[in-house]
């Protein structure tokens, strides 16, 4: 390694030029990375709803209805005019309304009132619209121009369009604000006015390279696009700070600047690498999710941390040496207090805190597994947004509603009619548009026009468009999906396809729920294995993982006690992120404690460790927490908002665990730690009275 690092410090200018050019290329390539805002696109290809969509697209031109558009205070004739304008709108595949379900030229009083009020109620018309996914944003804007701001629209397509246009602006604002806050924190925790700029420059290079190389994935999720950069910044921040401080230490022993940097790199490689490796492992666990967003975020963050490590070991030495004279000239006094008093306070209360922590951890673990969840995209925008207000307005008038599409094989019209009649007996089914319902089971297909036939019948399948009075997700919705599937299976055993937003959300729930235990166990055991190898101890990995996992349980148990509903995607992702990003704090604390125990007593080691690591942990942890709270405060997207809250609160809880609980655990298990590893030789007696 020394030979490699010597080569690096001897080629400073070349390295600076190469990495700056790579960063510029990364920034340019980032604009070519596509972002997918549709959660349902990340379902596995083999789940029933995904298969159903593929089969439907192969057999029919129109897709699954994905928007509800309400126009207020209109007559039947005016509603038909609006329908015609919507049908002619570029990007609209299909529009369903009352005239597709009943004969509107006869008195509506004679028609089924449940069907009528599904589409027309109190002079308000509700259109079920299918929007092309590729033209989502532009089409939603065109529809808004047609209906005006006084009318309302909702649905998955509208939600996706709002996320596409709004999230980018919010993330850019959060990123700028986060950089400003990070610089302030670095100024407080470093001793040079230039050092924060140097650190941010290195992080900026790593982030731009990572964002540009996301092009290899073709498309990334909105979660990765929104949170990837700021998470990379937060978890990689301390690597550069640690290297700078180690370089300053080596300069005091070796006045030769190049030699001191080589010494600093050799001494810091193990600690920085192990810290980065545990973070990468935590993110790597997300790759084992069947739900695509986890894999997408995991691979981007794991790659980002790996790139950050490369930047720290190759680019940062050249940058630090180039600007170090300026760092020296801009020294200021240490703005952080000494934390010896904090260390003494902790060593007095650490044992009771361990007891309290264990008592709190048990119910928190149970609560964290008992939350109520939203699985899909139907509740990602609250009532304080235009989308949320439109959704509430449509729901107030027409109630909760969704549209499913059922495909069954062509064959007996009589069987299809029986199926339709059985489906109509389900209380939540408000109307069905199908060949046998709209045309009649006795009218031959050859007597009908091609346009009518093509929407309801293909060479192989007949299509049932089912309107249901239920939300896009929830226990009632999931029971309804199961009931419709069971009903269809009774007439066409294993030979039918059901699609729709509620159906996709059911499959999403089924998929990501199955991912939970697998991802958490992989993350825990992977981090445990890394700690086992690096620390060469059986007991220490258990202590460290427990300290962070318990903080995760408390973090995820709080919503249960608050009686609030959790976005399951945020819940699933945060467990791996919090473990991977904050276990570094426990590693740093433990490493310093073990070092101090070689010459100090247990209690003295606790005091000295708290005093020496607080600034480092505070810097990294505060940045990560601030990034999380900024994402929560400024994002209107429910998943990103809640992910930010969990990240901010979870980081604080992890820091509390490391500072106030881990010392007690190390103190209690001190003798076990020593005997569990032959390399540990602790001082047995100290200078403090009654100390062991």
Task: Give a verbal description of the structure.
With 692 residues, this protein is an alpha+beta fold. It has 24 helices and 13 strands. The strands form four sheets. Strands 2, 3, 4, 5 and 6 form a five-stranded antiparallel β-sheet that branches. A four-stranded antiparallel β-sheet has the order 10-11-9-12. A two-stranded parallel sheet has the order 1-7. A hairpin with a 2-residue loop joins strand 4 and strand 5. Helix 11 runs antiparallel to helix 12 (292-329), helix 13 crosses helix 20 (539-562) and helix 19 packs parallel to helix 21 (568-596). The chain is elongated, with a radius of gyration of 30 Å. The two termini are 40 Å apart. The model is unreliable at 686-691 (pLDDT under 50).
In short:
With 692 residues, the chain is an alpha+beta fold. It contains 24 helices and 13 strands.
The CATH topology name of the domain at 1-32 and 190-335 reads Multidrug efflux transporter AcrB transmembrane fold
Main β sheet profile? 5 strands, antiparallel
Number of strands: 13
Q: Could you state the CATH homologous superfamily of the domain at 1-32 and 190-335?
A: Multidrug efflux transporter AcrB transmembrane domain
Any guess at the CATH architecture of the domain at 1-32 and 190-335?
Answer: Up-down Bundle
The SS-based structural class is alpha+beta
Mean pLDDT: 87
Strand content: 5-15%
Distance between the termini: 40 Å
Level of helix content? 55-70%
The CATH C-level class name of the domain at 1-32 and 190-335: Mainly Alpha
The low-confidence parts are 686-691
Number of helices: 24
